[in-house]
Write a structure and sequence with these properties.
heterodimer, A: alpha/beta, Rossmann fold, 2 domains, seven-stranded mixed beta sheet, 20 helices, 20 strands, about 35% helix, about 20% strand, B: MetI-like fold, about 80% helix, ABC transporter permease (chain A)
Chain lengths: ~575, ~325
């Protein structure tokens, strides 16, 4: 008897079909990966099993759980709630918002036990033991803490503790490690594997990241637009994919390049048409500049942070596009005692490096490493505490907003989340043309049209609003907006992190083309080592506000010298596939 | 936490100081001379000047301000120009009545708003939710004095259950006190409760969309228990802000209701003082109301930290 049996599951929202005729069987103790991009219906599948579909969605078909004589889809709420948390439980993506911010961690863990019949004191005791088991330091203190006092990884451990507290038969994990840093992700994945193995719990692991399921699941399902397109043992699916979408997804996830064009392989769209825009034409002038730039910047040296912490990384002899010397940014926490010194947090700690003109410079690090602080300083969005920085010939330290006008023309930035970084009440034309202060209407019109063409959007897009576009298209708009002042330097802050893998490949191709065509210097900040490896010629690894290692990307990845770099590269989940 | 308290208290004193300057300054530049008003239009300039001198009105503004503030520090708000009684005594008498009225009204408002708001949100998309929502919206549109008059017509004029107006202090007979308190407190409280319930409803609706509510459901809590155990306290944070603002507004709203029900509260005293051009008494009353509003704000700020551990940044 299988543990869970979905047959002909369909979910509708009004007349829209979100999931169509889904069949799925999970055996007791089995670990299954459900893979799909955003909007594929993978989370909806999970919520239908739990009976937690948001209002307005109707499920049909049937969901059977072993030992329950009734279809879960029509089971009354009172009986469903006795199954939730007891026989099946769930872990969500965002550990900060998934825990009640006003309730102590220990009580939240104990609650799931008392709800299903455990005595109060016993549950409280067991909660501490369970927290100890998932490797939370000082579990007794953690039980008395509130969620905001724990780190992201610890919060997800708490979620896991909670979900596993009653040793359920089925654990549904919806992107549980997506919001975590790579090193933390590896730990949480290991822990999850151990926990489900020990209690014989079956796992349905939902993710967009193929590499994450590699070491975890025996069987995978690939889902697109509410339909299961492929399913099978993980080795077979990853090495011999039968559906073209699976093949495309694998290639896009591995950031595989087409040997003929040298570009990233993108996922074929449902209609068969590719979404890739024609490559932008590079002007002779720009080509000349970029070729010069490449010739002038000699091979960068591979260095590790010295004992005294004052190493100047990536030093160039020529005039660099960016020169940073001893740059620091210190933040103050509120006073905790009247007479004691204020607590200082070093967001950025005496960082020195050059970026040569025309270079593609990657900055990689985990959350809290100072990479975003550095980027904000370089864009003139924040002022350094000490040190000097010169970007495109503009001195940043001590500069007033008025004096930064030239910087804003010469250096532009593309942000992470294209959903929130574009003003929802401005038309695309206004969004893109806003940085142009003195241009006439006609000039604006032609420039916007040119840029829309360059980023592969139709000219008609100019009159629409940002919400009418998909995530990838919005990021193209953000890139067009950044390029309208014809900058020399383009900063990108996690510019592809919010995008689906298939879209990510397209945007990365576009960025690479534009950097060539406009002879840009690119500074790309990311937590994703694979993206940096593909896109950048040099890379700086940041930890605790410092650059700990820097050099040509190939050398740093092949021969990481700093222990932290080694740890980072070691934690990277690898996609075992032979199709490329 | 101690640091926060000290900082907040310092800010409180500073705001109070600024408020006293504004109150004093505004009334000082107001047209209309007290001495002339008291003596009437026929008074000779000499008589007016003599009275001004007697009342100390001919001295520089700064001296008068400092004297006033200095007096306030010992609880002395000066002597009324009209009744020649200490202002502080009159204010404290009337303030007691207003405090009782406003606090009762606030309790009624909260008792109405919490269940109505929660059930309106919980029943959203169902008939119960729509009915509660419509009723509260209707009540929001009714002015307080009109509600008061309606209540008088029903409970006093028609049913003869409760007195239509007047006031009895608690020590003179508790039952009578309650009977006189009920109608004014209800007409203030029901309307404020309706307004507050709109905020409760929207706060609860926001909370029901939160991730942790889904987590609570996935643990096996039924929707209603999840709302009570995990949702309510979170929803209380925005509601607290509004409650603080409403409480302050109630002191102002009470002025009208006190007139309707002939309740000897601070509002009635203020109206009376304005009619008599009793500047020193107006100053005192306004200052006391300002102080009360500031105290309410202070309490609300401190309560945030009690409800929300994220604001206790002592670690």
């Amino acid at each position: 008897m299988s543990l869970l049996e979905l047959s002909g599951l369909a979910v509708h929202s009004g007349s829209r079909t979100l999931i169509d005729n889904l069949d799925l069987i999970i055996e007791p103790g089995e670990r299954v990966g459900l893979i799909g991009e955003s909007g594929s219906g993978k989370s909806i599948t999970c919520l239908s099993i739990m009976g937690l579909l948001p209002e307005g969605l109707q499920a049909s078909g049937s969901v059977h759980l072993d030992g329950v004589d009734h279809d879960l889809l029509t089971l009354p709420e009172s009986r469903l709630s006795t199954l939730r948390g007891q026989r099946m439980s769930m872990i969500f993506q965002e550990p900060m918002t998934a825990l009640n911010p006003l309730m102590k961690v220990g009580r939240q863990v104990a609650e799931i036990m008392t709800l299903h019949g455990r005595h109060k004191q016993q549950a409280a005791r067991e909660a501490v033991e369970l927290l100890a088991r998932v490797g939370i330091p000082d579990p007794a203190a953690a039980a008395e803490a509130y969620p905001h006092q724990l780190s992201g990884g610890q919060r997800q451990r708490v979620m896991l503790t909670m979900a596993m507290a009653n040793s359920p038969d089925l654990l549904l994990a919806d992107e549980p490690t997506t919001a975590l840093d790579v090193t933390v992700q590896a730990q949480v994945l290991d822990l999850m594997r151990d926990e489900v193995a020990e209690s014989g719990t079956a796992l349905l692991f939902i993710t967009h990241d193929l590499a994450v399921v590699s070491g975890l699941c025996a069987r995978v399902l690939i889902m697109r637009d509410g339909v299961l397109v492929e399913e099978g043992p993980i080795d077979r699916v990853f090495n011999d994919p039968r559906h073209p979408y699976t093949r495309g997804l694998l290639a896009a996830s591995a950031l595989a390049t087409d040997p003929r064009t040298g570009k990233l392989i993108t996922v074929p769209r449902a209609g068969g048409a590719t979404d890739s825009p024609p490559s932008p034409q590079r002007s002779d002038d720009a080509a000349q500049r970029s070729d010069d730039a490449v010739r002038r910047s000699g091979p960068a040296t591979h260095e590790v942070l010295g004992e005294d912490g004052s190493t100047i990384f990536n030093q160039t002899e020529d005039e660099p596009a960016i020169r940073v010397r001893g740059l620091s940014r210190t933040y103050h926490r509120g006073r905790t005692s009247l007479f004691g010194p204020r607590r200082e947090i070093r967001g950025l700690d005496s960082v020195s490096f050059d970026v040569a003109a025309g270079e593609r410079f990657g900055i990689v690090g985990e959350s809290g490493s100072g990479k975003s602080t550095l980027l904000r300083l370089l864009c003139g969005l924040d002022a350094p505490t000490s040190g000097a920085a010169e970007v495109a010939g503009v001195q940043l330290a001590g500069a007033r907003e008025r004096g930064l006008g030239r910087l804003r023309e010469q250096a532009q930035i593309v942000f992470q989340d294209p959903h929130s970084s574009l003003d929802p009440r401005m038309r695309v034309r206004e969004v893109i043309a806003e940085p142009l202060r003195h241009a006439t209407q006609a000039e604006r019109r032609t420039k916007v049209a040119d840029l829309l063409a360059a980023v592969g959007l139709p000219a008609a897009a100019a009159d629409r609003y940002p919400h009418q576009f998909s995530g990838g298209q919005r990021q193209r708009i953000a890139i067009a907006r950044a390029l309208i002042t014809e900058p020399r330097i383009l900063f990108a802050d996690e510019a592809v992190s919010a995008l689906d893998v298939s879209v990510r490949a397209q945007v990365l191709n576009l960025l690479a083309d534009l950097v060539d065509a406009y002879a840009l210097t690119l500074v790309f900040v990311s937590h994703d080592l694979n993206v940096i490896r593909h896109l950048c010629t040099s890379v700086a690894v940041m930890q605790s506000g410092r650059i700990v290692e820097c050099g040509p990307t190939d050398q740093v990845y092949a021969d990481p010298r700093h222990p932290y770099t080694r740890q980072l590269i070691g934690a990277l989940p690898t996609l075992q596939t032979s199709i490329i | 936490m101690a640091i926060r308290l000290i900082r907040r208290a310092a800010l409180f004193v500073l705001t109070l100081l600024v408020a006293s300057i504004v109150v004093f300054g505004l009334l000082a530049i107001l047209p209309g001379d007290v001495a002339r008003t008291m003596l009437g239009v026929d008074a000779t300039p000499q008589a007016v000047a003599a009275l001004r001198n007697e009342m100390g009105l001919d001295r520089p503004l700064v001296v008068r301000y400092l004297e006033w503030v200095g007096g306030m520090l010992h609880g002395d708000l000066g002597t009324s120009y009209v009744t020649h009684q200490p202002v502080a005594a009159a204010v404290s008498d009337h303030l007691q009545v207003s405090l009782i009225l406003v606090i009762s009204a606030m309790i009624i408002a909260i008792c109405v708003a919490l269940p109505v708001g929660v059930f309106a949100a919980y029943g959203q998309g169902r008939i119960s939710g729509a009915v509660l929502s419509a009723l509260s919206q209707l009540a929001v549109a009714v002015p307080g004095f009109l509600a008061g008059l309606l209540l008088v017509i029903v409970f006093a004029v028609t049913l003869h259950w409760l007195p239509a107006s007047g006031w009895v202090a608690p020590i003179e007979g508790f039952g009578d006190f309650l009977r006189h308190l009920l109608l004014p407190a209800l007409s203030l409280g029901l309307i404020q409760g309706a307004i507050l319930s709109r905020y409760v409803r929207s706060a609860v609706l926001d909370i029901m969309r939160e991730d942790f509510m889904r987590t609570a459901r996935s643990k096996g809590l039924t929707p209603f228990r999840a709302l009570i155990r995990h949702g309510l306290r979170n929803a209380l944070i925005p509601v607290l802000t509004i409650t603080g603002i409403e409480l302050a507004a109630l002191f102002v709203g009470a002025i009208v209701i006190e007139s309707v029900f002939v309740v000897p509260g601070i509002g009635s005293l203020l109206v009376q003082s304005v009619q008599n051009r009793d500047l020193i008494q107006i100053q005192g009353i306004v200052m006391v109301i300002v102080a009360i509003v500031l105290v309410i704000n202070l309490l609300v700020d401190l309560l945030y930290a009690v409800i929300d551990p994220r604001l206790r940044t002592s670690r």
